[in-house]
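Worked example 2:
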Amino acid sequence: MYFGPFYFDTKEIFLIIATLLLGLALLFDWPIWWFDKQTLLTITILMLVTKGLLPAIHNEAYFILALITIFLTLYMPIFQVILFYLIAFMFFRLLRVI
């Protein structure tokens, strides 16, 4: 979808909508079962930035990395999850998986 001079893929639109909804949930204190709203907002913004900077990412491998990262937020602290995401993303880029 073209929005002025910018092109947004469906995945970026989904991440933008998810970020907006998580921000509203954090603002209005809506419950999200099992997940921490602040952690999910941080992860979605990080994913939006990495997906926006590298638009030629293969979707399947990135989707699996995103799912694993989101489910790791249930059990691990945010620093370790971000570290896992960035290191796995770097290895995927170096090994040309993504």
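The chain has two domains: 1-58, 60-97. The beta strands are 2-3, 6-7.
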